[in-house]
Amino acid sequence: MGRQSTTLLKSMRDSPLTVQGVLQAERLGRYLTASEQPITHIFASDLQRAVKTAEALLSAQTNDHDSAPVTLRQLPILREQDFGFYEGKPFYTRQRDSKKSGKDAHGSRHQDDPDFQDVESKESMTTRTNAFVAEYLRPLLRRSVSEQQPIVIIVSHGIILSQLWRSILAMFSNRTVSLAPGLSVGSGGIVPLEYLGSWSNTGYLELDITCPIVNPHADLNSNDVAAMASPKSSEKADEGDSVTLPTTFKLVVRNVNGKEHLRGLKRARGVGSSQHDEGQKKIETFFKKAKTG
């Protein structure tokens, strides 16, 4: 799961990638290609900053004529948290004589206004991420039991990705989840797996989900098969609807906020935060040798 690159605004607004963001996305695409694990499925928020990041990852993949083409699925349910009235607005400061935050105080004063829309709740985001897991990830997990294991990329935004991680984690029992050797989470002490920390722009969370059995029903009882079927629809998926996978499924957290692809990348001075212009040529194009007939 990867967070989209640097943007002008981080919200439900459809803001574009910046120049620096495009460089970061291209770096990540080349890094993933070098891992020699071709993408089989890619999902992204339908906001253009996530779509452009996902397209950069796909364009970096080496074409393999023996494999099926990969289609980018753009999904509204992967959009960032909806900030409602506060979209694109500055933070409201706390009043000295108030115990409420500036935003809460403002909301209390205006919650009855006809055009007021509050920030999307955690419950609403959980409904969205659980729906994504039920409709798109669970079918792939069932398929991976008897077929080639899929390599899935999810490109979205910081807040909703944190919630999506919790929805994925909820599918596994505690004893089937582990961290890769040498991987530490947090700055010290015991950190619950639900809270892996924040991710940098194009920072990624790498998860390895495996099921060692070959026959999908070989050692599963009726409850296990029902859990794998995941009959819950997106309309009913909410925070309490997570169904634990059979214990034959294992989840290993390989990397948290992976940034190896950004090593040596310097910020584009002066234009890094500017909106990226797709029609603008890269400096490398001016030094390419002309083809001779």
What does this structure look like?
The protein is of the alpha/beta class and 293 residues long. 28% of the residues lie in helices and 12% in strands. The chain has helices at residues 19-34, 48-59, 102-110, 122-146, 158-169, 222-229, and strands at residues 2-3, 41-45, 72-75, 152-156, 177-179, 204-210, 250-258. It has a 4-stranded parallel sheet with strand order 1-4-2-3. Helix 2 links the parallel strand 2 (41-45) and strand 3 (72-75). Helix 4 (122-146) crosses helix 5 (158-169). The protein starts with a strand and ends in a 35-residue tail after the last strand.
Beta-strand content: 5-15%
Shape: globular
Poorly predicted ranges: 4-11, 225-240, 283-288
The major pleated sheet works out as: 4 strands, parallel
Strand order of the main beta sheet, please? 1-4-2-3
Average pLDDT, rounded to a whole number, is 75
Question: H/E series, N to C?
Answer: EHEHEHHEHEEHE
The number of helical elements comes to 6
Estimate percent helicity.
25-40%
How many E strands? 7
How far apart are the first and last residues' alpha carbons, in Å? 45 Å
Radius of gyration: 21 Å
**Broad structural category:** alpha/beta
